[in-house]
Structure to design on (442 residues):
């Protein structure tokens, strides 16, 4: 009898162990499977508040770098503006499809195999889960969850984020996905073998989904190889964005996202 | 009856856990060594404290870290396993099983720290990196991350516990 009681006592502890590990497993799976998981992450108000505090303290040591980045970006924009005023580029302002918001990065990682950013904008600023995030040089990620004042962004440096992209020169559709190793590189997938590609080709977003507009830079091809029996190239790209020094980013709102998404879903259901 | 020095535990909570939070992903060496020294708080929970209570504390500790690192469940699961194994591992390594053990640097000394802390930190880090990586693919890189991070965390935990050891008994 005593042995039985002892066994039950031991099992109680082990049962609690299994229960707690079960809860953890459920949390891990639920968070990775829900595109808009809004619990227990860094868009939480208290957590983001603490992150803002650390970020603000750190910013003073990087003011010069931030200034340089902003000047470089200004230069790029002024060049484009000059082109517009010379009539080289036509802008049809009646067909405005995208709205941009600015945001400050208050927390950022780039060395892990799943990286996230936290931004200081939230649902009060009309930010919604699923919006695209770009930096001065190119694509940064996609909004995962939003609280009143903060947003958590799945970085491009995240194994689960695939970005529909195309080779700028040949307009070949391909996919960019991070392989989890270097924060400077990502893999480029699904370029068929009959397309000639070169080192240095620019990869841009394809515009075939409702998240990113087309022709936003992602990176340039740094190396590629093609085995005898492969259907697709195995290529690596050098990312355009330097994730180690992200300070300010822009969120892209597609005005017609709901319409485009629902139409595409409807079409898939019919098929 | 186990001796629980509340003051000491609060000090551990502040030094290991609260200081870790702002530096969670800031103390990175060579792009592969991550310093997760908050595990020291769990490793230095009182010896022979009710195991269920230890696990619940570890679960909450892990969740706090998870919230800050956007990994719900990953740190928590590793912490629970460490809390579950902690006392039995201590008995195996140090060969004592009486309840009158006061778990701190003075009890462990250098060799004891290596035997008791390092393997548990290694297990904790293995779970975190493997789960975050989604398995053992790109094994070489993953393994170097685990090894370097374990050593790095161990050095920090060891250093902090040494600094916090009661002065009167320090040799």
């Amino acid at each position: 009898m005593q042995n039985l009681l002892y066994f039950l006592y031991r099992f109680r502890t082990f049962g609690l162990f299994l229960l707690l590990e079960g809860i953890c497993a459920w949390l891990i799976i639920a968070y990775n499977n829900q595109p808009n998981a809004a619990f227990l992450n860094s868009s939480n108000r208290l957590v983001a508040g603490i992150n803002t505090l650390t970020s603000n303290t750190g910013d003073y040591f990087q003011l010069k770098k931030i200034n340089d980045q902003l000047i470089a970006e200004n230069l790029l924009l002024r060049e484009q503006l000059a082109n517009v005023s010379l009539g080289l580029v036509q802008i049809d302002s009646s067909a405005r499809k995208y709205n941009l918001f600015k945001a400050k990065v208050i927390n950022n990682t780039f060395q892990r195999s799943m990286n996230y950013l936290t931004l200081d904008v939230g649902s009060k600023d009309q930010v919604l889960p699923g919006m695209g995030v770009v930096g001065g040089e190119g694509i940064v990620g996609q909004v995962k969850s939003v609280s009143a004042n903060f947003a958590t962004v799945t970085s491009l440096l995240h194994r689960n984020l695939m970005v529909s992209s195309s080779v700028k020169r040949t307009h070949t559709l391909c996919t960019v996905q991070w392989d989890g190793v270097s924060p400077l590189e990502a893999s480029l997938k699904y370029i068929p073998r009959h397309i000639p590609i070169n080192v240095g080709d620019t990869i841009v977003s394809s515009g075939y989904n409702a998240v990113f507009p087309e022709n936003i830079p992602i990176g340039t091809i740094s190396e590629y190889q093609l085995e005898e029996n492969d259907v697709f190239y195995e290529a690596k790209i050098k990312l355009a964005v330097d994730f180690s020094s992200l300070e300010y980013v822009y969120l892209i709102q597609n005005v017609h996202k709901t319409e485009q998404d629902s139409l595409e879903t409807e079409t898939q259901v019919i098929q | 009856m186990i001796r629980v020095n509340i003051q000491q535990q609060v000090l551990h909570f502040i030094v290991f856990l609260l200081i870790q939070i702002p530096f969670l992903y800031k103390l990175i060496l060579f792009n592969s060594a991550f310093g997760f020294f908050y595990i020291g708080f769990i490793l230095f929970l009182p010896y022979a404290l009710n195991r269920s209570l230890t696990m619940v504390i570890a679960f909450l500790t892990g969740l706090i870290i998870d919230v800050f690192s956007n990994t719900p469940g990953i740190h928590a699961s590793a912490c629970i396993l460490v809390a579950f194994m902690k006392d039995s591992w201590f008995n195996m390594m140090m060969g004592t099983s009486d309840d009158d053990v006061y778990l701190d640097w003075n009890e462990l000394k250098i060799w004891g720290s290596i035997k008791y802390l390092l393997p548990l930190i290694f297990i904790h880090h293995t779970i975190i990196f493997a789960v975050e990586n989604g398995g053992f693919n790109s094994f070489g890189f993953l393994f170097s991350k685990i090894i370097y991070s374990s050593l790095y965390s161990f050095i920090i935990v060891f250093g902090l516990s040494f600094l916090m050891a009661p002065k009167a008994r320090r040799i």
